[in-house]
Design goal:
By secondary structure, the protein is mainly α. The protein is built from 5 helices and no strands. The protein folds into 2 domains: about 35 residues, no CATH class; about 30 residues, no CATH class. Helix 1 packs antiparallel against helix 2. This is Vesicle transport protein GOT1B.
C-alpha cells in the first residue's frame, strides 16, 4: 500500500509541476512495489550466459547482495 500511494503521489507532483520531488517519490514507490520481485530477477539474470558470469563476480555480488 505504501508503494502504491508513494507512486501516485509522485505522479501527482509531476503533473502539477514539481518534477524532481515527483520522480523521487515515484522511484521510491517503484522500488517498494517490486521489492518482492528483485530476488526472482536476480536469479533470472544469473542464468543468462554473459550477464550471469558478470553478476557472479565477487565485487558485483557484494554490491548487489545476490
Amino acid at each position: 500500500m505504501q508503494g502504491t500511494v508513494s507512486f501516485f503521489v509522485g505522479f501527482f507532483f509531476v503533473v502539477i509541476g514539481w518534477p524532481i520531488l515527483g520522480m523521487i517519490l515515484e522511484a521510491y514507490g517503484f522500488i517498494v512495489l517490486f521489492s518482492g520481485f528483485w530476488p526472482t530477477l536476480a536469479v533470472f539474470i544469473q542464468r543468462i550466459p554473459i550477464l550471469g558470469w558478470l553478476f557472479q563476480q565477487p565485487f558485483i555480488r557484494t554490491v548487489c547482495l545476490v
